[in-house]
Write a structure and sequence with these properties.
binds adenosine-5'-triphosphate; alpha/beta; 6-stranded mixed β-sheet; single chain; 10 helices; 4-stranded antiparallel β-sheet
């Protein structure tokens, strides 16, 4: 499978925060969720790989091309949705679109109009009068109207109501259906990824913890519930985020078979992306695994 993006050995330092040797790749045909708690370094990573903020070291290859040498050609092929937006609030949606469209050779006006209609956006409305959800939809309409091959979005679902979130997730699926494309999507709302993502990348305190196919993670991790009397020294190292209650215990494991053998009475259930994230990050053990 071809990689749409390869990041190798990326380092970047702010005064009180740094990205340490960040490396990952985005295969074609995948929706990749970039997960991590607030302040883990998601936005910093996205801005750095897009060349919007300088880096100390690291190689960034989009579509096999070096970002430093081919930035213009690469940006033509990317759809970018950042929280900051980069919009001029005084302009109407059509005026801002004219500015954005002028930088893309493959701008598709008919496609843009279809998205405005679908999202019920009024082309004459001023940007600074849009609600958060409308702004998100507008940014998405711009990002999807120039035949982008890789869509990069920073926290696109944060602050959106469930209806708009569902609509956004449907659009991402449709986008992927056309083939040869990819989506890279940062979020701390991991429930959006339970259904949608093919691949997950977890970042914690500026370091990549894992990059793995979601299905293989979901296959490996389980929530374990049982009687606290069964918790022996031999099973404790196999359990993450252990929480004890008056009725028993709940934990997460990536050693389901050993737990089944050692604790025949324990109940093993499917874990969520959130359970997996919390058991892999520093301090995540303060949060109990989903107990119900
Ligand atoms: P969130 O989910 O809250 O958006 P995040 O994972 O996107 O978090 P970042 O926005 O990348 O996290 O922030 C990581 C750290 O870098 C934070 O401690 C933040 O204060 C710091 N940081 C971000 N931008 C700057 C900047 N321009 N100057 C200095 N520090 C910064």
């Amino acid at each position: 499978m071809k990689n749409l993006l390869e990041v190798r050995g990326l380092n970047k330092a702010y005064r009180n925060f740094a990205l340490h040797d960040v490396s990952f790749s985005l295969p074609e045909g995948c929706i990749t969720g970039f997960i991590g708690v607030n302040g883990a370094g998601k936005t910093t990573t996205l801005k750095t790989i897009l060349g919007l903020t300088p880096r100390e070291s690291g190689e960034i290859l989009f579509f096999g091309q070096n970002l430093d040498k081919e930035e213009r050609a690469i940006k033509e092929r990317l759809g970018i949705v950042l929280d900051s937006g980069g919009f001029y609030g005084e302009l109407s949606l059509m005026e801002m679109k004219a500015l954005a469209a002028s930088s893309y050779r493959s701008w598709d006006e008919a496609e843009f109009r279809r998205y405005l209609d679908r999202f019920s956006l009024n082309p004459r409305q001023k940007i600074n009068t849009l609600s958060k959800g409308m702004r998100m939809k507008y940014a998405l309409a711009l990002a999807l109207s120039h035949k982008a091959e890789l869509l990069i979005m920073d926290e696109p679902t944060s602050g959106l109501d469930p209806l708009i979130r569902r609509q956004l997730l449907d659009i991402l699926r449709e986008y992927m259906d056309r083939g040869g494309r990819g989506v890279f999507f940062s979020t701390h709302i991991t429930s959006d990824l339970d259904q949608l993502a093919d691949m997950l990348i977890l970042i914690d305190r500026g370091r990549i913890v894992f990059q793995e196919e979601k299905d293989s993670l979901m296959e490996r991790y389980r929530i374990v519930k049982g009687d606290a009397k069964e918790l022996s020294d031999s099973v404790l190292p196999l359990l993450h985020n252990l929480s004890r209650t008056a009725f028993g215990f709940t934990a997460v494991t990536d050693h389901a078979e050993e737990i089944r053998k050692a604790m025949p009475g324990a109940l093993l259930e499917r874990a969520s992306v959130e359970d997996i994230m919390l058991c892999q990050i520093e301090g995540g053990d303060r949060y109990a695994a989903s107990a119900d």
